[in-house]
Amino acid sequence: VLPKNIRNFSIIAHIDHGKSTLADQLLMKTKTVESRDFQAQFLDGMDLERERGITIKLNQARMRYTASDGELYALNLIDTPGHVDFSYEVSRSLAACEGCLLVVDAAQGVEAQTLANVYIALENDLEIIPVINKIDLPGADVEKVKREVEEVVGIDCSNAILTSAKQGIGIEDVLEAVVKRIPPPPDNTHKPLRALIFDSYYDAYKGVIVYFRVVDGELKPGDTIRLINTAKEYVVDEVGVLSPKQIPVDRLYAGEVGYLAAAIKAVADAKVGDTITLKKHGCREPLAGYREVVPMVFCGLFPTDADQFGDLREALGRLQLNDAALSYEPEVSSAMGFGFRCGFLGLLHMEIVQERLEREYHLDLIITAPTVKYKCTVKGEEVIVDNPSKLPDHHEDLREPYCKMDIITPTDYVGPLMELAQARRGDFKDMTYLTETRTTLVYDMPLAEVVTDFFDEMKSRSKGYASMEYQITGYRPNKLVRLDVKINQEVAEPLASIVHKDNAYKIGRALVTKLKELIPRQQFRIPIQAAIGAKVIASESISALRKDVLAKCYGGDVSRKKKLLSKQAAGKKRMKSIGTVNVPQEAFMAVLSLG
Ligand code: GDP
Ligand code: MG
């Protein structure tokens, strides 16, 4: 296929608006995958993704399509993750395209992630084709959604494409629009090689498989490549295209997207956003916009059974081969024993890693509440604190990360959402009416308040209709203090948190009340206290267990007795003892849901 017949594009959408379903339809329509070996939502490979309905890992697929003008085109569909945690990866994968399909649900309209993704597309100068999907739904209002996209997003919708991805309506129109409206890549084959890495994953046989777009020049097996930002060099074993299975080719030219294998050991060696060039006659200047992604959210992971420490280390090592954004280092706590302090891009990323450790590696973990990375000054030097219990006692100042939060909501819920944002220390910045019925709220908010249950609260206060996006903006000093928890007179390090001074009493009170509910009664009375330094600000106690639980099972009801015993055993699995007190997993998360 000639460069003028190549089209590189992606699909952007708010979650659940139909991106994956549309992608599947495009693959079927172009017979890239036969429907008989078609597995619903081909591009969403991982089980976890499918269950959660999110696209985490980027992917790509080349389709061959003969358009109504009679010519054969190669259409490269580059998948993008839809979630804020992965926004840097969204921007890299969009940088590999000339255009994108903007999918908007005909019954829902524009949402926070629709907008966030559009802004990234505009920054990358992409041709944006609006696609109004789910026109089959009884609640679909195509005209209203078109107006909304025009007003809010500012793009012309007079030739928006109407689809029902579910029923296969309008799919041909989408393919024609990709061919006619998205420009071909510029022909830069004569220049020295530069290729943009927009994704990579670890393969046990071939090493890291790197997905890239050739911007200038050409690349073939046997070439010695150099990654400009990491300065690493490799000999290329294989290059190819994804269709969507890997198909090796002789070479890839400027404008094409594809993959390579070069015995690279970990994805951290071939980072998203890095530039590939040749060792000989290469380029010095990397492509624009490379950024090291830094973890923003931290938590402790401890095996419930100390014998699993080695397994946990190995599992984290394996996950990191495939996840350059995951960080971990050993942590020892007198209460918890040996474990790891891990860093993640955001909450979703954290949940995914935790779930994989438990599901794929069969580890039983106690997970401590997520925290952000604080900065403080001690004797004139900056100290970074990613674990509240390690906050130095004598710090001169304490700073926390802030984000700009955009919330899009039906206007009816503006009141409750403003209340929520205020309660979470948000500084009101702006409010605009998107349409007669929808409003955007903008706040500056401490990231620490977002990583608790902000998302769930926002959803519940808006009956599920509001959506949000946030972007880290920087650090700000605040009146923050460390809130310690003592269980049976022992400091429970993993339960420590850093909170605003003005809220400390309220949080301390709520926390001890919650812990009283969550920690099971034991043979002795257990005092629970919240303290700032030496000063106790709230206390509760759990009274001693008087009767044997089995006493409840009168007479010889053996099966009931057995059930109760096995229930207790299962409950025990997720406990960790702090001193002599057994503390269940939920208690470690208590600080997140104090309301
Ligand atoms: P994604 O999160 O954007 O990838 O969305 P999905 O493709 O996973 O779709 C989300 C849900 O909407 C799924 O249950 C789909 O079956 C459904 N869906 C997608 N397209 C349509 C459509 O055109 N009509 C209807 N009625 N449902 C659709
Ligand atoms: Mg999807």
Molecular shape: globular
Indicate the structural class: alpha+beta
Bound molecules: guanosine-5'-diphosphate, magnesium ion
- What is the overall pLDDT average? 88
Overall radius of gyration: 27 Å
- Uncertain segments are none
> Strand order of the main beta sheet, please?
11-10-16-7-8-15-12-13
Helix content: 10-25%
Number of H/I helices: 14
Distance between the ends: 58 Å
By DSSP, the count of extended strands is 34
Tell me the fraction of residues in β-strands, as a range: 25-35%
Q: Assembly type of the shown chains?
A: single chain
Please outline the helices and strands:
Layout lengths: L5 E8 L5 H11 L17 H6 L7 E7 L5 E7 L8 H9 L3 E7 L6 H12 L3 E7 L8 H12 L7 E2 L8 H11 L12 E10 L3 E10 L1 E2 L4 E4 L4 E4 L2 E5 L3 E3 L3 E2 L3 E5 L13 E4 L18 E7 L5 H13 L5 E7 L3 E8 L2 H14 L4 E3 L3 E2 L1 E5 L2 E5 L11 E14 L3 H10 L3 E7 L4 E9 H4 L3 H8 L5 E11 L2 E8 L2 E2 L5 E4 L3 H15 L7 E7 L2 E8 L15 H16 L1 E4 L2 E4 H4 L7
Parallel strand pairs: 1-3, 1-4, 4-5, 5-6
Antiparallel strand pairs: 2-3, 7-8, 7-16, 8-15, 9-14, 10-11, 10-16, 12-13, 12-15, 17-19, 17-20, 17-21, 18-19, 22-23, 22-24, 24-26, 24-27, 25-26, 28-29, 28-30, 28-31, 31-32, 33-34
The site of magnesium ion (MG) has 4 residues, from α1.
If you had to describe this structure to a student in words, what would you say it looks like?
Its EC number is 3.6.5.n1. With 595 residues, the chain is α+β, with helices and mostly antiparallel strands. 24% of the residues lie in helices and 34% in strands. It has 14 helices and 34 strands. Helix 1 packs across helix 6. The protein is globular and about 80 Å long. Bound molecules: guanosine-5'-diphosphate (GDP) and magnesium ion. Magnesium ion binds next to helix 1.
